[in-house]
TrEMBL record:
Residues 4-79 form the NAD-dependent epimerase/dehydratase domain. Pfam families: Epimerase. InterPro entries: Epimerase_deHydtase (IPR001509), NAD(P)-bd_dom_sf (IPR036291), NAD(P)-dependent_oxidoreduct (IPR051783). This is SDR family oxidoreductase.
């Protein structure tokens, strides 16, 4: 397939590009800078210049592709409303371009906010509906295109997509530990996150593009629940720092923006995903990655 990938030079998207090319697919990556373009060309990908606000480029990329993999998001923590707006507009532009083609439309989504008090499953419907909801309700918007002849596949990502070079939540926690001189967890540390290695995530995205039926929700999850205390302890070991509890009211001051997430349990199973696509994660666990120095290099 010729796949159009947004977020093609991001943490997850760059691994998806590698996975697609290594398995014989062609890639067109969206690039908003000369540096991003050079990185994609070096991998053997074609390039379409543009960004999430360039809706004409998004439509053009989708129209010329056999599949679309939408990984990009602004992740503007200071202005979440802008991130939500741009995400919804991008999904709508891509979906409109794919309408009536039966082509795959793989859309990244978070696991957070799906359910409370238990691990989410693939059957759980996102409560985010409409432009004023989380991520602009883009998951449900993308699924609406199934009725318009689009093979939409939702890929819900664990909060930690880990590996050497990660600049996500665990990297934020490691940076906070260095700054504070202590690796912290919030309260009793019983909150838990799901996790997946980046290479396993990329392989699942490729399988979803190739095989998943229209309307499928996939959970990009290798480990269902890793406690935040265990994460803090692994970071402490890797940095040679003490480990201690941080009061909830001090979380933002201690951890920065990630403090708003670290107290939350964000877990999900991937049993249905594994059965559907015969996907078995093979990468190291989150704690093994931390212990091996993935976040201290």
């Amino acid at each position: 397939m010729r796949a159009f990938v947004t977020g093609a030079t991001g943490w997850i998207g760059s691994a998806v590009v590698d996975e697609l090319i290594s398995t014989g697919h062609q890639v067109v990556g969206l690039a908003r800078s000369d540096r991003a373009e050079q990185a994609l060309v070096a991998k053997g990908a074609d390039v379409l210049r543009g960004d999430l606000d360039d809706l004409a480029s998004l439509r053009r990329g989708a129209t010329r592709a056999d599949a679309v993999i939408h990984m990009a998001n602004k992740h503007d923590w200071g202005n979440p409303a802008e991130s939500d707006r741009s995400e919804r507009a991008a999904v709508q532009a891509l979906g409109d371009a794919l309408a009536g083609t039966d082509r795959p439309f793989v859309v990244a989504a978070p696991l957070s906010g799906l359910v409370e008090g238990r691990s989410a499953t693939e059957d759980d419907v996102s409560p985010a509906i409409g432009p004023d909801s989380n991520r602009g309700g883009s998951e449900n918007l993308a699924l609406d295109y199934v009725a318009q002849g689009v093979r939409t596949v939702i890929t819900r990502f664990a909060p930690s997509v880990h590996g050497r070079g990660d600049w996500g939540f665990v990297d934020f926690l490691t940076t906070a530990a260095r700054k504070q001189g202590v690796s912290g967890y919030i309260g009793d540390g019983s909150a838990a996150w799901s996790a997946v290695h980046r290479d396993d995530a990329a392989r699942l995205i490729r399988l979803g593009m190739e095989q998943a039926p229209a309307g499928t929700r996939l959970h990009v999850v290798a480990e269902e629940a890793v406690t935040t205390k265990a994460i803090a302890e692994a970071i402490g070991r890797s940095l040679g720092l003490p480990v201690d509890s941080v009061a909830p009211q001090q979380a933002m001051a201690h951890f920065g923006v990630v403090g708003g997430f670290f107290a939350s349990t964000m877990t999900a199973s991937s049993n249905a995903t594994r059965r559907l696509l015969s996907w078995e994660p093979a990468g190291p666990s989150l704690l093994a990655d931390i212990d091996a120095g993935a976040y201290t290099a």
